[in-house]
Amino acid sequence: MATKILMEALSPTMEEGRLVEWKKQEGDPVAAGEILAEVETDKAVMDLQARAAGTLLKHVAAAGTTVPVGNLVGIIGEKGEDISALVGAAGKPAPKAAAPASVATAPAIAASAPALRPAADGGRIKASPLARKVAADRGLDLGRIPGSGPEGRVILRDLESVVAPAVSPGRRAVAVTRGADRPSYEDVPLTQIRKTIARRLAQSIGPIPTFYLTTEVDMDRVWEARGQLNAAAAPPAGEAPTGKVSFNDIVLKATALALRQHPACNAWWQDDRIRYWHEVHLSVAVAIEDGLITPVVRYADQKSLREIGAEVRELAARARDRRLTPEEYTGGTFSLSNLGMFEIDQFTAVINPPEAGILAVGSIVEKPVVRDGAVVPGRRMRLTMSCDHRVIDGATGAAFLRTLKQMLENPLALVW
Amino acid sequence: MPTLTYRDALNHALREEMARDPEVFLMGEEVGVYQGAYKVSRGLLEEFGPNRVVDTPITELGFAGVGIGAAMAGLRPVIEFMTWNFALLAIDQIVNNAAKLRYMSGGQVKMPIVFRGPCGAALQLGAQHSQNFESMYANVPGLKVVMPATPADAKGLLKSAIRDPDPVIFMEGEMLYNIKGEVPEGDHLVPLGLAEVKRPGDQVTLIGWGKTVSVALKAAEQLEAEGISAEVIDLRTIRPLDVATILDSVRRTHRAVVVEEGWYFAGVGAQVVDEIQKSIFDELDAPVLRVNGADVPMPYNKHLEKAAKASPEKVVAAAKQVLYLV
Lengths: 416, 326
What we know:
The structure holds two protein chains of two kinds.
Chain A: E1 3-6, E2 16-22, E3 29-30, E4 35-40, E5 45-49, E6 54-59, E7 66-68, E8 72-77, H1 84-88, H2 129-138, H3 156-160, E9 185-189, H4 192-204, E10 210-218, H5 220-232, H6 247-261, E11 267-269, E12 273-277, E13 282-284, E14 286-288, E15 291-293, E16 296-297, H7 305-320, H8 326-329, E17 334-338, E18 357-371, E19 374-388, H9 394-409
Parallel strand pairs in A: 13-17, 17-18
Antiparallel strand pairs in A: 1-8, 2-4, 2-7, 3-6, 4-5, 6-8, 9-12, 10-19, 11-12, 13-16, 14-15, 18-19
Helix pairs in contact in A: 6-7, 6-9
Chain B: E1 3-5, H1 6-20, E2 24-28, H2 44-48, E3 53-55, H3 60-72, E4 76-80, H4 91-98, H5 101-104, E5 114-119, H6 134-138, E6 144-146, H7 151-163, E7 168-173, E8 180-182, E9 196-199, E10 204-208, H8 212-225, E11 230-234, E12 237-239, H9 243-253, E13 256-259, H10 268-280, E14 289-291, H11 302-308, H12 312-322
Parallel strand pairs in B: 2-3, 2-4, 4-5, 5-7, 6-7, 10-11, 10-13, 13-14
Antiparallel strand pairs in B: 1-8, 6-12, 9-11
Helix pairs in contact in B: 1-7, 3-4, 8-12, 9-10
């Protein structure tokens, strides 16, 4: 019995994929789970896995071609099997495969475990209403949880032993308050006034009614502190240098800590409610060839400058190679975009929905400033926050920015 | 607190209400001289005289209508049917007059009347004398339907039913008349429209009324022996249904089984399931199951009759099914 190999939705937003390279050739034996081909999605290059064992009988899609999700790319079966009927039907659109577990927006789903019920098996995930609710509350992907009820229905019991994996594998897990006992966020249904604000503002300026707040930060102390930190971290002669702390790392850390004090800005717009996150996951805009992507530094408020720096550099490097997994670039609660290295003094960034805010970081500029009544040279940096007005009001965003500014102007606050 | 039979608890309720309110009177077949087919009215003729304890001919439609007329004229009749099977003859009066006159008169006509008697199967009474009709009466707007399961509730609910300004269908159980329980003395009133948790538990909710409360309680005992904690809810009043108590329980247990003496199709249990799924769908970990009497005219054969009835064993099996233990 031949099995169709279909183009799968390998990212939450993927509609088509480019078949980069076949890893198995026609006539090769394949086992279920083996990698058949590399597929370039809208976000990254991903592996297409075999959903059945047998012999790869046919490459229906040639390397380099782009195939819509759900369409036939190849056929697995028994050697010598007649597959002409299947191949002949290749031109017609195959039934659209279900997107793998439509909880793409949920954070921290184990990246390593393959989905138990892959998209291609055509069945919806069966789960009791309660299991669905609990999984959504805890950010669990039902598609990855084996169901013990009738016909594989996921029931409450199946969730009891599952803990939401909080940190990507391979990185040191920071214990403290991550995940474990408390829910990751709180959903607050929209009040009538918030509904009206949302509707009126969206009518005025497009689906995300954005406004912008700019503040100028005195960076003299950060400048000084960074110099001292990096001098202190300099390795003894002969040893490889460890990563230096960048201004961007410091702004990230300060942003994360300020968000913790202003949860109203650490939120998602969810159409009928606002999701206020108890955790801070920062999406960091990284320019890549032909575009940009926002890998997420999870629990940024709980990480040291050095951890943040190392993680950002590692994520950015893999982002440029297009090797990020979907879990690594989804689930952020707030975004940060820095064009300071391009000597941009100030700009406005576009909100990354469902997040409600993004901070645009300009360059640090030496300029005359007034201090104690005298004009002296100083270092200043402009921050511009784009706010989704449905979630964040002017005063709310301004209060957050003030905290952030105070932290950067007194960098000891970062360790306080 | 004295221990009374269900029968005597009803008798006390009637006696107390007749003594309290001269407008209350009892009417039906054999209620007077014979002291009641099931001796619920024992001693009442002697105490209150033939004007307030009235023996009738075997004419259910007729004396139901006389009662309705008396209620319209300002009295508070209690109409006893020897069983609810015979009340099928009176259903036109109950549904077309008792249930509707207050509404159709724009509130000018009051209908403070109680129709009471035993319902459901006893032992080998045959198909025509072993039936439950609470789902039929509860389907009619304008009627309240009450089914006590214990002596204390029998007394408290009957007193509340007699004082209620609207027609109340009060369904007892022949097999319940002899059960004993502690009954508060004096003015013990159980409000209509309030269910009661008869046994607390946290893994599955068993919902019963009338005779099936004891079935559910026995099932809960068997489940406890297997380490399963079942909560038992006694609806007590079928209409108005105490949805809040049901939902409170199922919100905690996430699983429910409805135990009903009567037939499955369009039974009261179907209404209970609807209230649950409509309001707390997201709390359910399993479909709500129903245990009912078999969907047949009640067999006369002793073994078949037993097999046709809702039993603790059937309830245990359903509870395990919603707990995914089978």
